[in-house]
Write the structure tokens for this entry.
Amino acid sequence: MLELQNVSLRYGDRQVLDGCSLRLEAGERLALMGPSGCGKTTLLRVALSLQSPDSGTVSCAARRIAAVFQEPRLLPWRTAEENVNLVLSDREDTMPEALAWLRKLELEDARGLCPAELSGGMQQRVSIARALAVKPELLVLDEPFKAMDDALHERVLQTVAVSSKNAALLLVTHSEEEARALSCRVLRWQDGRFA
Amino acid sequence: MSPAVRKLFRTLAVLLFWLLVWQFAALRVGQELLLPSPVQVARALYALSRTAEFWLTVGQSLLRVLSGIVLAALFGVLLAFLTHKSPLASALFSPLMTLVKSTPVASFIILALVWLGRGAVPLFIAALMVLPVVWSNMSAGLRGIDPQLLELSRVYRLPKARVLRRVVWPSVRPHLRSALRSALGLGWKAGIAAEVLTVPPYSIGKRIFEAKLYLETTELFAWTAAVILLSLTIERLLLRAVDGKDGTHA
């Protein structure tokens, strides 16, 4: 599904990734844990082909990929519902499906609101709804549950766990609980690499 | 009273104020040859508009100048995409656009007269005035697209047409709007100026030139008023087209 082989990347003098390898089979779930700045997000960006490594190879066989970034990345000029519909189609007839995903993330009342009218946590839930809506084969999550209170955090985790149960999942998190709730094998940052 | 109605009243009041100032100045001067009054100009414009030749002249000028504006706007948009994608194209065309913007329009009119013959000069000049304005505004719009949204489109493998419609167009639309607003006035005025200097048959510029030649100041003002009214109407129509049917969404 996803394979990174011996990937290295340097920003100026700083070696961010050094011979990093990772393999994710279909339906496999993996969490990357480590201190801030150790290269977790960079690894995700390389895995998503948003950044080319200096050396090493990246191959991905997934046709439907979805990602939730640390920032929600919503179209500011579109409503929550339209933001979810963006990944479904360019037509109106998929709007009920977009609404159904918003409902799962407890955002039905916010369907007609633009991102500027939503709180940070709500914006992040819209971006989670958008990711789940594509029924991804590979779901990449970069600390997606920030800015949510405890009760909501737990319910959203459950929704993601249930709705993505057939997807390969790559999660970056600082929370053991999130990794456990999403049934992830954990790779920790040790001695300059994930192990 | 709603803000829209209040704004309309304020605009009308300002218009009325300046018409009164003009009327007062015309009365003080007392010579139609030097400064006709707004009433005399309105009468002359009304009389002109009742002739078939007026509409033929307006139509021909519109066709010439608008063709230049539309062609330049389309080319400016395409060129902005090209220079945004290719550093080589940007290095080649950026100085050329600066050169076009800095060169006096009269120089271009004379050159175009030599190169193209008088029929094509207004179209060419209008296009030349519009092109750098549309290009520079569109380039700024393309530079301003949120890279995070483009990354998102790549990750979700959104079709190119959807990215253009949902991400690129709403980002560049305010820039294109402001470009068209400045370019239209500029292109229209430069096109008419080119007509005055090249006097093609059935053109507003030719009529302005003849009015000047025969000291028909009132007719000169009437044609100028027609140019202003046409410019405002075209600007409204074109901006409405850019805004889309709901005026806010892409």
